[in-house]
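Illustration 12: DRBM domain-containing protein.
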Amino acid sequence: MSKQWQNKLENACKSMQIPPPKFHVVSDRRGGRTAWSARVEINGQFIDARFWFDGKNLENAKEDAAEVALNRMIATRLPSSASSRGSLW
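Figure caption equivalent — predicted structure in token form:
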């Protein structure tokens, strides 16, 4: 499994001189099964993955959280976004 988004997020944190991302795995009991997802902590903020996965796909959950976080970082660094919403980073 590729860690493409996780690596990109870690590089973005390095370039912004903030601590590296910390991933947290979360679970939710759903009937007879458990669904798994991830959250990533960046500079004291938590960003949740969009999707829930089967336990064998935990790396996908981390990748999803990393993608969401990186896209949010990029969006908040754009001049039009930063002025209208304030920077999260």
